[in-house]
Amino acid sequence: MPSVNPISFDTQTSDQQGAGRYLNALREHWLLVTLLVSAAVGAAVLYSATVEKRYEAQTDVLVTPVSASDPTFVGIGLLRESSDQSRSILTAARFVKTPQIADAVLDRLGIEGSREDLLDAVTVTPLGQSNIVTIQGEASSPELAATIANAFAEEMLAQRTARFKEDLELTIERLRARLAATPATDAASIEVTALRQRLGNLSGLVGGDDPTLQVTSAAVAPAVPVWPRPALSIGIALLASLLLGSGLAIALELANPKVTREEELLLEQRLPILARVPRMSKGVVQRYLAGREQLPGDVREAYRTLRASLALAGKEREFPRTILVASAIPGEGKSMTSANLAITIALAGQRVILVDGDLRRPMIATIFGVAARPLGLGTVLAGKGNVRDALVAAPGHGDELRLLTASPEQAHMVDLLDTARVERVFAQLREQADVVIVDSPPLTEVSDALTLADEAEAVLVAVRLGRSRR
Length: 470
Known about the structure:
470 residues; alpha/beta; Bacterial polysaccharide co-polymerase-like; 3 domains; 17 helices; 46% helix; 12% strand
């Protein structure tokens, strides 16, 4: 199919084209992305300003289990060393979050709420490598968070100490009873000596605390809350909204079947852009078609640019003798382009024939205000008339511009658009004019345009951004 000589482009990979399309999607839908980001960041700021603040404070308890080989503490409930070094640390951690300790802390502090709520506000973390159990309290105020952490540590030590003292007293009583029952003759025996030594060691612990547990670092009121974290919340909202907005923009771009940018024609469809005709309002077009108003100056200049762009588009790098003007769908301005291009070429002193090739929806007669005639393109194709008799002078243009019109009554003659008939009619038209311009039917709706395009030296495709489909 003859066509306009293409403009040369640098070759791009599909990845580069895809990336360019995504960037164009972001530029096209920047307002959507901006609104989503603004809404998300605003919500994050509002949430950070109104949500209840949460504070955390930590108390560290050192665990020093007694040796498993030391007989001194046999029968006393203390933490003992084992082959598993972390076992005593885990056992100590389980002593903290118990219902008994939680009830004692509630009574001690007078906190409103249930035992379960208080236990949920406490986190216990055993650090096996350092023999430390960390008790973390969480509350809505820094002072209360520190108080809860310290209260759990102190209450745990108090209950363990009470248990230790009770076991210690019972053990001392048993040792004294055994020594009292020992005969005087055995007073110097090894067994009695060991009992006395053990009794002496335990007596020194009377009144003391559990020797395996010790608070090494009491909790203090934190200076800043752990939640909310405004910078983190705003950062996450910003990132999430950017990703969401970008995804929506790309999805809209991929789902949109319409051509919205010139870059798509240049880079994806490899179509050269010969002219850019400014969009006219409906009122301007109606007044122009009614003959009450001329085209705006910038529109007329656009058609002059199109005429200049076609100067070397013919077979011999000269102005093409036959030009087909088409579009993908109706309403993209092909008929207006055909008419005004014909007028512009005629004003340059060339003889022009404008053919209405759309037998189903003819528009050329309407644009020029010419009454539809029985003798038109359909009858010429059928061989029932010759081209010279079918031509009509365009009002105001003399012999420089003539029309070969069509009428709705000739719609049934579309089957006459075969290659042989079209070639014959085009040959006759070229004898009568320097340039023949054909206003064709839409390319994607009917096959008529393909037959007409085979006989054209140049094919122009009218594209209306935001309306033409890919």
